[in-house]
Every structure is written in structure tokens, then in C-alpha cells.
Amino acid sequence: NAGVTQTPKFQVLKTGQSMTLQCAQDMNHEYMSWYRQDPGMGLRLIHYSVGAGITDQGEVPNGYNVSRSTTEDFPLRLLSAAPSQTSVYFCASSYSKTGGNTEAFFGQGTRLTVV
Amino acid sequence: AQTVTQSQPEMSVQEAETVTLSCTYDTSESNYYLFWYKQPPSRQMILVIRQEAYKQQNATENRFSVNFQKAAKSFSLKISDSQLGDTAMYFCAFMSAQGGSEKLVFGKGTKLTVNP
Does the distance separating the beta carbons of A44 and B106 come in below 8 Å? Predict the structure, then answer.
């Protein structure tokens, strides 16, 4: 059971470089999201998607881009990396709510350092 | 907008003892979900316990239980018989029950250390 798979697990970027964090889920979940975790800040929502072709901004969207062409994949793009984007990134997926049995499944996280 | 507050940045407890982690939240909604997530040093986010706001009964999962006070907007986590493996960051989180909204709002976390 793969669940939510994030790649890479670690990445070092130079300021101005671009990269894509990959996220894939095999649970046929409709809802997928990206969070960043910073010390003392908890997890904050970057972008989310309620289904293929539909995305929206979360609390901290600046500097990030997303798309959702399939139900399974939800990549996060950094167009021009900045040191302020040094963080741990988590992808999560869950069903759309039916019957109140809601649970978000998380990937293992990507530790990104921008130098 | 909803907010979640965890007022204890760090806590410690002796093995086999009981510890309670605090969480308060602010919302104008009447129906929602509350969660406690555990994040061990491996970084994996693990769901510990979930509470539906419309249920008056407090959720329990083995050694983990919650004290859900809806009127006070309080959602504390009690860990009984603490084990070394409980050492982790613990995050309280809120999710609206409004249709199509599965966004989680997290508190800043409590770092729990279980001492032998």
C-alpha cells in the first residue's frame, strides 16, 4: 500500500533555481493539498485541489504553482527559489467528505534548503 | 478564519505517567472536525485521534483520549501510560465540515519528551 508518495525526500537549491516537488496518491482521493512546515509555525496550507483540473490558493501561496491534470498527481512548482522557501513540504490527500469519515493521509515530506 | 492555539511549546513526562496536551480553537461554525497528529523524528505525520464536533462523546484510541469541550472550544489530548515511543511533536488541527472544504488548520505544535 503506497498511500501518498512524495519525491524527493531532500533537495538543495540555489537561489533562483526552479524545481518541482512530486506528489502521487493511489487511493483515488479527490482532495489533495500542499503544506509547508517551519519551526514554531506548525503546518501552513500552500495550495489545494478538490479534483482534477481544480486548484485554489491556501494561506501561503506566493512563489508556488500547482496543477492537477489527473486524480493521482499534484505537483508543486517553485519557479524561482528563494531562501525564504527553505522548509519541509508535505503533500496530503483525503476523500471529499461523505458521512463524516474524514482523514488526511500525508506523504513523508521533502526537506528543501535554498542557499 | 479559524485559528488553532497550542499554548505549550514543550512538555516532558516520565515513562508510565499521564500527560495532557492543550489545544484551543476559534471558529464560528457549529459542525467541524478536530484532530491530533503525531510527528516523530522520522517526520511522518500520523493521525492519533479524531473528533467530530456533533458527537458529544469524547474520542478514545487505546492510551490516547481527548477532552472535547465544544462551548469552551477546547480539545485537549491525554496520553496515559506514556511510552518512550510517544516522544514526538504533536499537532492539533481543525477542519471545517462545510462541503468541499477539507483544509486543515494546524496549531504550532507541542514537543513532547518522554523520559525513562
Answer: yes
pLDDT in tens, B9-18: 999 999 999 9
Q: Is pLDDT at A99 greater than 70 in this prediction?
A: no
| Number of other residues whose CB lies within 10 A of the CB of residue B15 | 12
Name the strand (E) or helix (H) holding A78: strand A76-78
Q: What residues of chain A, 6 to 35, have a C-beta less than 8 Å from chain B?
A: 31, 33, 35
Is A58 at the interface with chain B, CB within 8 A?
yes
Cis previous bond, B40, omega within 30 = no
CB contact under 8 A, B43 and A92: no
Q: Which of B10, B1, B98, B39 is nearest to A43 (CA)?
A: B39
DSSP chain B: --EEE---SEEEEETTS-EEE--EEE-S-SSEEEEEEEE-TT---EEEEEEETT--SPPEETTEEEEEETTTTEEEEEE-S--GGG-EEEEEEEEE-STT---EEE---EEEEEE-
Asked if B106 and A104 come within 8 Å (Cβ–Cβ), the reply is no
